[in-house]
Amino acid sequence: METRTLHTFIRVAELQSFTKAAKELDFAQSTVTMQIRQLEAELGVPLFDRIGKRISLTAAGRKFLSHAYEITHIVQKAGALGTQTDGVLRIGVLGSLLFGKLTALLPRFRTAYPQVDLQIKMGRAAELLEQIKQNELDMVYLSADLNTDPDLVCLYKQQEELVFLCGADHPLATHRSVSLSELFENDFIVTERSGVCFGRLRRLAAEQNKLLRDPLEIDSTAVIATLLKAGKDLAFLPAYAVAQPLSDGSLVRLSVDTPPETYYRQVLCHKDRWISPILQAFLELIS
Amino acid sequence: METRTLHTFIRVAELQSFTKAAKELDFAQSTVTMQIRQLEAELGVPLFDRIGKRISLTAAGRKFLSHAYEITHIVQKAGALGTQTDGVLRIGVLGSLLFGKLTALLPRFRTAYPQVDLQIKMGRAAELLEQIKQNELDMVYLSADLNTDPDLVCLYKQQEELVFLCGADHPLATHRSVSLSELFENDFIVTERSGVCFGRLRRLAAEQNKLLRDPLEIDSTAVIATLLKAGKDLAFLPAYAVAQPLSDGSLVRLSVDTPPETYYRQVLCHKDRWISPILQAFLELIS
DNA sequence: ACCATCCATCGGTTTTTATGATTGAATATA
DNA sequence: TATATTCAATCATAAAAACCGATGGATGGT
Prior knowledge:
287 residues, Arc Repressor Mutant, subunit A, D-Maltodextrin-Binding Protein, domain 2, DNA-binding
């Protein structure tokens, strides 16, 4: 049973004529005859009584007509599947990005797409990438070097700069410029040990043949900022995460004699995945 | 979009495998691939993500799956159209048969098929036959000579005998035998003027070169029976219509020296009409 | 009685669908 | 790490079907 045939049947029933339906649907009249006959054969029941040169629905035909309407209605709804924005969206995100970037945007998304069942799973980068390869996540939002995995595609990337920070009362705060080796005489507060910031910081220290003194590890950048204001520690964080304390002067960005350390805040998903309208909408939210 | 394809899609989704679905449905695996692809093309949306060697429904695929279930469910219902007994049944019937035969049967039909919208239209034979030719009636129930119209078919026929009747107190009641010419000295009570009984009666009179004295015309055979018991009139009626008064002796059947006058109680419908289960059921009721 | 209209039928053509074998990639196994 | 197995996609080919145009029979109106 084909939807095209159902269409034909419906128009024939409505117009009470094979010929008129054929003209309207741009079929040969013989085609309409055949379609109806095939439908009748498939159902095992006559749909029209052919009495003289006019036709009329049989009892079965009348009932099947309503079925046909139902089906075409469903098919019509199904035609809009590509634009519908409801369903499940499973997002993996790094803890730092969840608190630093995503949380602020979520309310807007929830109000714009209330019918999306949003499932946000926090995790470390390696775990998230493994999950997306298993198609257990629809996309991941993380900070890292540009992706090189051929199975993944980057749907969004934004370069971010990592900056050295101290509190306004810190001795270094007033220095016009600070050397790298000088920096590493201080204690650092860092975010997660496996994150990009810590990795870059460790590399820079190693290049200076310095050893990072056992740093304090705190996931929340807000807490780090507070601690910096009060104390004598330094931090190495993405600029966007401390935009507010920098602008009000409570934190100071140190001018360091080293090429800027950059990395990417990015959205990745599996290369073979379909980018659903929901996913699309979420991407637009982020960008 | 074909129901076969929907079936395939459903099984693929349920089994999470093209190959398994192909085996189960007795298709080549390449056929399943093609069917799914064609479905995706028709909907303009991918239904499965092919990641590695395993597949999983996309968001659109999940939603379409429920649509597919709905459609196949409707199609399944439609498959039983040939056996369903609900809908409209339009019956044309002669007044005499309606009161004499049909009324007694209707309650049984109503309880057996409560979902049938039964439309009983009373009318004269010529009108009814015209209506059935226009497909304004599904069947007619009438008494007449055997049908000769090539457009109509007889679905049921029962030979009935017309008998001469008088009341128990009538002078002729005790006669062993009565001649035709003797009969026509009496007054007759008849049913409708265009009916079979009256026609036959008139013919018999003509053959005897007698003139029917202006007969009393009453449609109800019950009323005629009552009048016969009390009075001096005769009647010419189908035997079945007076079975009760004959058996209890209040009416007497006259033994007349003439070949028995027979005619047919019959059900006719248009030859090209589909005999629906409802109509079938009604026929079984009558027979 | 004639004409126009309607649906069924038929043969030929085109389009669609199904198949089997093969390929390439991913996963399990040794 | 190498090998075997499994899975879906692809391609060429064969089968099936859908479609069309012409024709014919029957009907209904003029």
